[in-house]
Each structure stands twice: as C-alpha cells, then as structure tokens.
Amino acid sequence: MNQGSGEQVRDVIVVGAGPAGLASAIAAKQAGLSCEVIERGAVVNSILHFPKNMGFFTTPELLEGGGVPFVTPYQKPTRDEALRYYRRTVDVFDLEVDLGHEVESIRPVEGAAGHTLLAVDTTHPHAGSRRRLTRTAVVAVGAYECPNMLGVPGEALSHVSHYYTEAHPYYRKRVVIVGGKNSAAEAALELYRSGAHVTLVHRHAELGSGIKYWVRPDIENRIKEGSVEALFETRLTEIQETHVVVEDAGGRRTLPADAVFLLTGYHPDTSMLERFGIEVDPATMVPSHEPETYETNVPNLFVAGQVVSGIHSGLIFIENGRFHGERVVQEIARRLAAPRDTTTRASVRVTDQGGAHRAPGGVLLQPQSASLPRRERSHLDQLDERL
Ligand SMILES: Cc1cc2nc3c(=O)[nH]c(=O)nc-3n(C[C@H](O)[C@H](O)[C@H](O)COP(=O)(O)OP(=O)(O)OC[C@H]3O[C@@H](n4cnc5c(N)ncnc54)[C@H](O)[C@@H]3O)c2cc1C
Fold first, then answer.
1. Does the predicted model carry a pTM greater than 0.85?
2. Fewer CB within 10 A of the end CB, N or C, for the chain?
3. CA of 355 to the centre of ligand 1 (A)
4. What is the extent of the structural domain holding 200?
C-alpha cells in the first residue's frame, strides 16, 4: 500500500460524492480548506442508479448546492437533469473528486507533529490500495446500497431485484412488486404502461401516506379498474423460479412471476460505519453523532446526509441533507483555526431519530429534526414515508 507519507495532509476528506458529500466539499472549498472527495462509483452514484425515467418530487431550487442555479423548464427535475446538474457543480467549484476509489477504513494515527490525524485507506480495482492522511473527514455514504431484505427464501434468485430501473425488459411479462410507497407505485405504473402484467403486494391495508399527490390518483384508479392488481394486507413469503408464495388472512396462495421487485427501502451500511470506528445504534442504525456538529464518537470524523437518519431513511433527503456539510465545515474551520480547541463536544449523542433524548440531568432534547434550520424543518413532515 502507498502509505501516503510524502503526500499532502488534507484538511478534509469527504467519503461519497452524493449530494451531501458534494455540498460538504463545496462548503470546505468556500471556507478555504483543502479537500478531496473519494467516491467508489460515479459522481452522485445513487442517483445514477435510480429508475431511468424517474422525476424528483422536489422542486429544482431545493436540490441546489453552493448556490449554483438548477435550471430546468420543469417544475420537478428529471434524473438526467440532476446528473447533469451535479456534474456541473463539481466543475464550477473545481472539486477534487477521486472516482473509483472505495474507502475501506478510517482510523486515527499519530501525525508527524504529534497531532492526531485520520488515515483513510482506499482500494481501487486497478490502482490498488492507498493511504491518505487528513485532519478531518466527513462520511457521506448515503443509504442506497443496502436494501431492506425481506429474508424470504428465493430472495437471491436472478429474477429478483431490490432496484427497479426501466420497464422495457418486462413487456408481456408477469411482474410482482412488493412495497406500498412511491418507488413501488411508480414502478407499477410504468411497468403496466409498458405492457407488463403487474401485481402489487403490500402488507398494509392501503398505500403509504407519502405517495406523491400526482401519483396517488393514477395508481389508485389503475388498481380500481384492475389494470394493476393489488393485494393489500398480504405478505410475500417465498420466491421460486416461476412464481411467488403470498399469505393473507385467507391463507397461502401462489402467483406466477417472471420478475420480482422488492421495493421496501434501504438502510445504511452499518458494517462499513463500524469499520470506520463509528458506533451505530443497533435498533435505529443511526451513527453516533453530536446533533449540532455531526461529529461522531471518533474525534474529527463527521457524518452528513442520508446516512445520519439510519433506518428512518425518510427523514433525510437531498433537500435537507445538503445543509449538513455547511455545519460540519463551520465546526472544522473553527477547529483548524484553533487546533487545540477540540474540547467543545456536547455531552449527548443522537442515537435515535425517532424521538427526543434525555441528557444527563434529565433535560429533554428534541429529535434531530428540531435542531434543523427552519427551511429544513418545514419540509420534514411532508418528506417522511415517501420512498
Ligand atoms: C427513487 C428515489 C427518488 C428520490 N427523490 C428525491 C427527491 O425528489 N428529493 C429529495 O430530496 N430526495 C430524493 N430522494 C432521496 C435522495 O436521493 C437521497 O436522500 C440522497 O441521494 C442522499 O444523498 P447522500 O449524499 O446522503 O447519499 P447518496 O446520494 O447515496 O451518496 C452516497 C455516495 O457515497 C458513495 N459511497 C458509499 N460508500 C462508499 C465508500 N466506502 N467509499 C467511497 N464512496 C462510497 C456512494 O457510491 C454514493 O455515491 C430519492 C431517492 C430515491 C431512491
């Protein structure tokens, strides 16, 4: 491994070039800090893998980073427009983004002048392993790469996927979709309109409350007229090569299925966070962090973006996650200006996004959303439950 001994020590290394990582890097650049972003895929790799024809539910200005205008003739931008926008912001701010490098571990090491640094170890399929040294790091790794598994037999079969991309391959095929939120509803509609026979299987009595207001009447009417078959209060219990097994109050039955989409949400990669030394609440999958600065239990290692929300992935979106970087960088800039002053860490860490927290002495702290700026908070109620 290249030990990075002769390399520049960065002020900030950002892990992940998603919207939150890019916003952190822009803030660092604007604060005059040296910053490198390490990304294992492409820039905004999660968005790259979204359904090809998806439209955002967010208006363009709420996806912006660093004040670069998101110009589009549409009220809700498309995936292609978002990809182009984020490429453009990388160019506008001339961000240093190292693509194709996966961060394997982050750990504190002794620097030359006796200060503690963070060693960031990466691997690249061709370039091999490398160590970079940095004073601080921001982990903005999102939560799109770990789907919530149903844990049913057959989930790993080749015709089963936790990601829907496009409809054409399923023309005249029988497709079973599990889920009841936007991802499931939109996939069902697109597949139906592309000539697939679609059955939606949902464990609750009705579709999720956060379904986009313009999608809800469409999916409800398609279900009502029988164009999309919907099985509510039904669980999928097994997947075979040619069919699935479902169960409801009336018992078990089989449904023919050429393809199965399990669109049941995502969660952070907790084993990766633990490899970085970050403690994770086992129940909520929320990484341990200070509510104000987003610093984790590892000094000078911060989190930003969707990873902060743990299993409640509906709480942090691009709309609000893009502001984490500004706050993280404010704290980093303050520390680097006064390097010995790293002792202002609050006594309470966020480990549960779902409710308030009691600080030592019994003071009730509000959940993280309560500490968000007003413009973030105003959206939170509407944002939950959308995916
Ligand atoms: C279908 C769909 C529609 C959506 N629509 C909207 C919307 O309209 N509005 C909205 O606000 N939000 C929307 N969201 C949510 C939004 O996309 C996410 O909240 C957002 O992408 C999170 O940004 P992030 O930067 O935190 O994480 P991500 O965008 O997931 O970025 C994380 C990055 O980290 C990289 N990475 C991970 N691990 C490593 C590693 N070890 N080393 C190097 N790189 C690593 C990944 O490759 C990825 O590029 C939608 C989500 C989905 C699935």
1. yes
2. N
3. 24
4. 160-262
